[in-house]
């Protein structure tokens, strides 16, 4: 990562509500957080407490009702959609509970998908894709389709894909939620290793207390705000 010391995330007093019929659900009621490159944090809380909502907002996939988000000093919500999509692609890497790999493409191609969104030619990025796939232990599976992989292997491809653009923010939503115990431990270990190597900002949301125990900074979402534990 070339601009490590520029990576920063500053979230101030985020509020987010959802309207369902005539009911308003206040999910986030003043969430604040500041992180810089090399920092990691886990957000825990019961199902429905707003973990995914929080992650989507800091990943610019959703807008807050009030409060601010600054990524590397920039307010992403000032950008209109085509520029916002480019910003998101450059700055964030997502790992979800489901791997979201494209079944018709092989492992190497799947890792290059975020590149193809904004560059006509993925070739200059192929070396990094191969390097990342080696780091996640899949160099011998480059030409295999996702269907030929185990759940843990697919999630390891998803990690490589999330990192292809050297994101400043690595955002994970229940990254081990679909995995057996051994695969979950492997995926968690890889996330930490690559986070340390690349000095990005790592935010993981999970209801897995086992995963959460790996983190020094643990934020519990409770009644719409962070309680530090
Ligand atoms: P968690 O990830 O902690 O399980 P979520 O952030 O997914 O929680 O959801 C928090 C609350 O917001 C839930 O009550 C959920 O139903 C509601 N919610 C989330 N997204 C939407 C949406 N797009 N429309 C309406 N309600 C939503
Ligand atoms: Mg969720």
Description:
The protein is an alpha/beta fold and 229 residues long. It has one domain (8-228): P-loop containing nucleotide triphosphate hydrolases (Rossmann fold), CATH 3.40.50. It contains seven helices and nine strands. Strands 5-6-7-3-8-9 form a six-stranded mixed sheet, with helices on both faces. The protein has a three-stranded antiparallel sheet with strand order 2-1-4, with helices on one face. Helix 3 runs parallel beside helix 5 (151-163), helix 4 (126-135) crosses helix 5 (151-163) and helix 5 packs parallel to helix 6. The longest helix has 18 residues, at 181-198. The model has no long low-confidence stretch (mean pLDDT 94). Bound molecules: adenosine-5'-diphosphate and magnesium ion. Adenosine-5'-diphosphate is lined by residues 18, 20, 25, 27, 45, 47-53.
**Helices and strands, in N-to-C order?**
EEEHEHEHHHEHEHEE
Small molecules in complex: adenosine-5'-diphosphate, magnesium ion
* Name given to the CATH architecture: 3-Layer(aba) Sandwich
CATH C-level: Alpha Beta
**Strand runs, count:** 9
């Amino acid at each position: 990562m070339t601009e490590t010391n520029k990576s920063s995330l500053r979230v101030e007093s985020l509020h987010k509500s959802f309207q369902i019929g005539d009911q308003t659900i206040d999910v986030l009621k003043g969430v604040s957080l500041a992180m810089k490159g090399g920092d990691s944090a886990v957000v825990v809380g019961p199902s429905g407490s707003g973990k995914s909502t929080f992650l989507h907002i800091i990943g610019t996939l959703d807008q807050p009702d009030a409060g601010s988000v600054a990524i590397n000093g920039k307010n992403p919500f000032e950008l209109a959609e085509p520029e916002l999509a480019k910003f998101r692609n450059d700055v964030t890497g997502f790992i979800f509970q489901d791997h979201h790999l494209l079944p018709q493409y092989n492992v190497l191609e799947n890792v290059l998908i975020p590149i193809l969104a904004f560059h006509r030619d993925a070739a200059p990025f192929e070396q990094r894709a191969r390097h990342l796939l080696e780091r996640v232990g899949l160099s011998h599976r480059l030409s295999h389709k996702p269907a030929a992989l185990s759940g843990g292997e697919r999630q390891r491809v998803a990690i490589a894909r999330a990192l292809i653009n050297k994101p400043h923010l690595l955002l994970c939503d229940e990254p081990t939620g679909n995995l057996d115990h051994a695969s979950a431990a492997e995926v968690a270990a890889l996330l930490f290793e690559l986070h340390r190597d690349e000095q990005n900002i790592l935010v993981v949301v999970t209801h897995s207390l086992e995963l959460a125990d790996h983190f020094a900074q643990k934020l519990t979402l409770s009644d719409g705000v962070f309680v530090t534990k």
